Amino acid sequence: MSISSFVSTNPAHISEVIGRYQxxxxxxxxxxxxxxxxxxxxxxxxxxxxxxxxLLRAALLLEQQKEELATLMTREMGKILKExxxxxxxxxxxxxxxxxxxxxAEGETVPSALPNKFCMTIxxxxxxxxxxxxxxFPMAIPAWKTFPALLAGNAVILKPASDTPLLSLKLAxxxxxxxxxxxxxxxxxxxGGSLGDALVSHKQVNMISLTGSTEVGRRVAEICGRxxxxxxxxxxxxxxxxxxxxxxxxxxxxxxxxxxFGTSGQRCTAxxxxxxxxSVQQAFTDRLAAAAGKLRVGDxxxxxTDMGPLVNTGRVKAIQEYAEIGKQEGARLVxxxxxxxxxxxxxxxxxxxxxxTDVGPSMRIATEExxxxxxxxxxxxxxxxxxxVANSTQYGLSTAIFTESTRLTFRAMRDIESGLIYFNxxxxxxxIHLPFGGMKAxxxxxxxxxxxxxxxxxxxxTIFVSYPTRK
Length: 471
Ligand code: NAD
Fold this sequence. Notes:
The chain is an alpha/beta fold.
């Protein structure tokens, strides 16, 4: 039987094929689940510190190959080398951090309310975990889900996004080189819809962990809900930066430039709205436009490049549609608003850094996730109005606020509906030893990374041991 395949291409030079992958089917999901079920119980009996050693060895191998992997990633999805190095570094850091958790897979022991009784909790694997990942962090996200899932004693079926399967395959290769037994991690490449459905609805899969769009998250949650399958979702965002009139404007401009246009705006935590107090709107807008206008857009492999291409030409069309919508809605275009053309850009999926101002809080460009180098500036009169606008979308992933006021800093901690809140810093820049995740439609209440990363992929059993004296 012939196996059909698909390719990934370089978004800076669309004709350059980076890899050819198996276009897997539901039958391949069956094979992967069978292999995972066979391997899981053996893997779970290996002591957790030893499982951690394997992860540590994998992290060290990643470290050795960091530059090569970062270069491959830039070629496969476009972001600049500085960012792809950071993506691989995140995977290395998670590997080292989670490896140590092998010696810390703590339970609780607490006093019983009754005499001659002992109470404790122990953690056990969930079993078979299906992991589904997006294309924007091709190594970091597969790693930050896979490492803790494995450490907890689970077997994993990993389905990476079709634009970027290469780094997930490399991750699996290095884990196997580090000593991971066959069948414990299985990578299946192919289309999200059909493969995703087969994986998400498989009766022997005990948990799904998905990072992706809110639309796909809802579908996955519905399917998991029918079987009461555990389902951890990290989804979209419409992240706001609030700039109050007492803000350090230079710092705010620098942070928004990086938060909005880094990774060409294709980050779940990218700055997508700036909610600015009217008294500083003009000054902020002028300075942001000047900074964004200086960004050098091009091939991410060129060390001079500040912003790479979008992941594919389909995304260029999608961003262009939002630029048209913004104009129709009556927002004022300050910068960009069209694809980049000319000989340097002809072969790639390039879009200009784009800024709209005088955006109304309920316009589509202020409420929908654009997922590109595209910022909507929404003017407001007061702190209270800023918070109301910030909280007015369905999302709640990352919000930043620029102010020098201690009083407003503490009020904002309480008032902002968001899983991540930054003060005087961009909406991006999570750290792996702290929990990561969103509120509202940005997730379903789970948190990844941080000290509970392994717990996320574990079952907790509560144990009561009675030892009464014989009568
Ligand atoms: P996507 O939702 O299109 O795809 C994500 C993954 O789901 C891919 O592997 C895809 O093949 C798979 N998929 C598609 N349809 C499926 C289905 N019916 N069943 C199961 N799986 C299916 O997202 P994307 O375009 O790859 O990534 C961009 C989105 O991801 C944005 O919305 C972004 O905000 C979000 N994201 C969120 C986080 C976070 O941590 N909150 C991080 C990165 C990206």
